[in-house]
């Protein structure tokens, strides 16, 4: 509600405990419904990190360069996104945007059909940035999935931001960023079936790994064939602690229905809570086995890894496979993360 009304709504309740704020929230049902639903599928809700659209480093740099020009002109934040994934993000000097605010922004835009039909300029409150005041967000869809957000504290900046949007759009078209973003959406991201047998530092790219033939199901790790990737790996989430970004594998068999995916996310949420429990932890590793999965979590000063395996997976091989996943992410970090982004301070 702070997103829509700012925290100053508290004053109304202090003056009148029976104050009815329902009229102030008119037309926001879809926003709240979408946000609630996101807790069933979006890891950002518990990881407090954002994810990036997989792109070639040069493509992301091209997008970032023009957004940097905008930020230096007085805009607080310039954000280019494809659905819920970040293509590039630039902030003005000393301005930081919390991943939770990123989640709220993306949900606000994605759940409002009006943003898709015309350019918009809307007040919005980002609770982590400043819960007591509005920022003003210029939103424009560049194609069916990709949209630009320019945030400012100036309520009269619409026309200036529109001029910047035109310049940005020209650069993005000229540098082929929008086409590359659409191609990435179609291709998808990392898949457990494509996990390299022997990943080596800086040895390859996401695109080449995605096209790598799968090893025979029995041989590579010396174990009997299990569903999913090597050693029965079904899914993983890797969170960079320094960058406040995460990357997760695409869903595939046997976790290929919304019900199964929702159940896995709930298992991840419980695992995350357990790992970060202040009374009993924090913990560095956990290994759990039940009828549904083998779950393995590994937390270091640099990253967090959450992985789900076949319930019959061997523990030693699962650990070995997690090491391979971490190296694979390092190999392709230029493509799956927005590097050079300042860490968020909160």
From TrEMBL:
Residues 74-167 form the FUZ/MON1/HPS1 second Longin domain. It holds the Pfam family Fuz_longin_3. One of its GO terms (biological process) is protein targeting to vacuole. Residues 189-222 are annotated as: Disordered. InterPro entries: FUZ/MON1/HPS1_longin_2, FUZ/MON1/HPS1_longin_3, Mon1. Residues 232-332 form the FUZ/MON1/HPS1 third Longin domain. Residues 200-210 have a biased composition (Polar residues). Plays an important role in membrane trafficking through the secretory apparatus. Belongs to the MON1/SAND family. This is Vacuolar fusion protein MON1 homolog. It comes from Petroselinum crispum (Parsley). The lineage of its organism: Eukaryota, Viridiplantae, Streptophyta, Embryophyta, Tracheophyta.
């Amino acid at each position: 509600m702070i997103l829509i009304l700012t925290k100053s709504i508290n004053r109304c309740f202090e003056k009148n405990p029976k104050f009815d704020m329902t009229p102030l929230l008119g037309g926001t049902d879809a926003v709240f419904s979408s946000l609630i639903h996101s807790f069933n599928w979006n890891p950002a809700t518990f990881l407090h990190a954002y994810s990036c659209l997989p792109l070639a480093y040069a493509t992301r740099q091209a997008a970032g360069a023009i957004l940097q020009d905008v930020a230096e002109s007085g805009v607080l934040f310039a954000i280019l996104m494809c659905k819920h994934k970040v293509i590039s993000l630039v902030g003005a000097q000393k301005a930081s945007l919390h991943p939770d605010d990123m989640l709220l922004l993306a949900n606000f835009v994605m759940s409002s059909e009006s943003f898709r039909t015309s350019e918009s300029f809307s007040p919005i409150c980002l609770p982590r940035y400043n819960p007591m005041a509005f920022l003003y967000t210029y939103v424009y869809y560049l194609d069916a999935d990709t949209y630009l957000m320019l945030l400012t504290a100036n309520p009269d900046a619409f026309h200036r931001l529109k001029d910047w949007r035109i310049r940005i759009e020209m650069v993005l078209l000229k540098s082929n960023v929008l086409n590359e973003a659409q191609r990435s959406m179609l291709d998808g991201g990392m898949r457990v079936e494509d996990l390299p047998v022997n990943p080596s530092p800086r040895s390859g790219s996401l695109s080449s790994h995605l096209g790598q033939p799968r090893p025979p199901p029995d041989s590579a790790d010396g174990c009997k064939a299990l569903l999913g990737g090597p050693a029965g790996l079904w899914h993983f989430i890797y969170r960079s602690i320094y960058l406040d970004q995460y990357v997760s594998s695409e869903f595939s068999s046997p976790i290929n229905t919304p019900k199964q995916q929702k159940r896995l996310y709930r298992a991840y949420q419980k695992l995350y809570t357990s790992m970060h429990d202040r009374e009993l932890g924090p913990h560095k590793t956990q290994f759990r086995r039940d009828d549904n999965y083998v779950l393995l979590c590994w937390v270091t000063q640099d990253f967090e890894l959450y992985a789900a395996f076949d319930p019959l997976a061997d523990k030693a091989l699962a650990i070995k496979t997690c090491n391979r996943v971490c190296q694979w992410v390092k190999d392709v970090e230029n493509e799956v993360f927005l590097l050079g982004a300042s860490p968020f301070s909160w």
